Amino acid sequence: MTKIKKSDLKTQLLQGIQILKSKLNYAEYCYFILAVFFFYHTGAVLPQNGTNFHTQRLVATSRAGASFTLQKKKRNLQGDLIDDFSEIEGTNPMLKDVLIPAIPATTISDSVLNNYLDQLDQFQKITSVFSNTESFGQTYDYWISQLAKLTLKQGVSFYTPRSVIRLMVGITKPGESMTIYDPTVGTGGMFTESANYIRQKGGDISSVTFYGCETAPDIWAICKMNLLAHGLENIFIQQQDALLNTHDLFGKFDLVLQNIPVPTESMSKREIYQFNEAFLKHAFSGIVDDGRGAILMPSSILQEDREDFWRQIISQDWLEAVIGLPAKLLHGTNSAASIIVINKRKLDAREGKVQFIRPINTPLPYSRHNELDDKDITAAIDAFESWRHIPEYASVVSNTTIAEQGYKLSVDKYLSIGNEAPNFDITSALKRYRLAAKEREVAVDRLMKSLEEHFNFQEPD
Questions:
Q1: CATH for 162-414?
Q2: Which CATH architecture has domain 6-152?
Q3: pTM for this prediction
Q4: I need a surface site. Which of 111, 221, 359, 451 has the fewest CB within 10 A?
Q5: Is residue 358 a contact partner of residue 324, using CB atoms and an 8 Å limit?
Q6: What DSSP line would sit under 37-96, residue for residue?
Q7: Rounded to an integer, what distance in angstroms lies between the CA atom of residue 420 and that of residue 398?
Q8: Measured between alpha carbons, how far is 447 from 451 in angstroms, rounded to an integer?
């Protein structure tokens, strides 16, 4: 089968939006289009005899195998579509509340729906895109990425660049029989890229279990459709705030992958600080004793004053690497990004040390939709695996040195270490001295009160 060009996929998507946008807003058409694509796919791959879908979890219905062409020229096509979605949801518990809510409250005329479905029929005849079970998952994910870019202009952000996820996955190396968790799962990119990695290594993806949380109902539904389109079977995606889950719901995990959300503009600085730290604590506490993780975040989080938090993490030797990424990479923010790599059971040679890596030294183009090049991803993974000093690129630093720097984790601070002594952070040193002096004063006061209480001891003048 001829490979479909991304430009053709994008053109098809934009043509559909052009037909629908006069009736729907950006949030409505995004969810609606992806639901129709997914349903069209099930109709193309599910035979009429009720044989299971290729994930072995979805069952064919009498409507799903039928072409939309058979339903056209009727009155109230939107009502027919509701019936179609209702039937497949009723037959497949995994799709409960996934498809029906995609039908917009706004009435779409038969003429508009006819035009839109005619366009899909024509595209299917030319490309067989919806019936190609091997490539549909990647196609669906590409459509999600394009819709994310369009909706970002409207202030919506639910997408992590897949190249960044590939870097995180390449560093953490998910494998068979793992439990993988994403507290802010979005559209499921951490899971689909993990699955791609495991399959490329010849692993059995059916042995892997995926857990995630998502608060937005439409993004939660899109995530479930995306994972099913990729053939993932063992998925447990909860529509809830992960921070309300103290890991009683799912337990702990072999691997945690997460992109910490961008705080809302209404949050105060104190609220942002607490918001970020809550997600950091949630991720670390959710990893099993020999597990690992990778967390993507704005670099500003690492520049905030979190000395007490990072002292606890580094004293337990859980931080393995910090990878600095350039600005204008994450959706929803122009700030630089960082990845922290967590490993609760490091190799002996890595104990007591942290690696700092900066994969790209030059600014990215002025665009809000940048991706990392494959060569940059490969170079960063190679540097991490080699675990050595590379001038102006990577440096391995002792936990003691990080403590001397006040537990600040900016990548640039440590890249020079290895060839020359680090710059001494006098501000952090004075802060630690004052804290120690205060603690000593409290301890002496407590001791004197105890001596006076038990021995009537009076401190001499």
A1: 3.40.50.150
A2: Up-down Bundle (1.20)
A3: 0.83
A4: 111
A5: yes
A6: HHHHHHHHHS-TT-PBPTTSS-B--TTTTS-GGGGTTSS-HHHHHHHHHHHHHHH-GGGT
A7: 14
A8: 6
